[in-house]
Amino acid sequence: QVQVVESGGGLVQAGGSLRLSCAASGTILNINTMSWYRQAPGQRREMVARHITGGGTNYADSVKGRFTISRDYAKNTVYLQMNSLKPEDTDVYYCAVATSRGVYWGQGTQVTVSS
User: Is the pLDDT of residue 55 over 90?
Assistant: First the structure.
């Protein structure tokens, strides 16, 4: 069993910054990727940033240059540094941990950016 817990969401003014954290624990075998997604009510969940084990990152075009994903392998933790936040970044952010046995999701953390 794998547990995924996000933290770090909150309310911030436009132009501000937030740092999200996601920690995976439990019986973890091979982690292939650790990713951040976001979803607004009634909308499709979209990938924001992905960290690939061994190196390599992917970003959605809408966040390139503003968001940075990083990872602490020893702690099975991934971070999302979000700078220059915009009101359209307001969403529930979810962490996804992809292993050789499946994908595990966290419960989500709310990010709200006020204009």
Answer: no
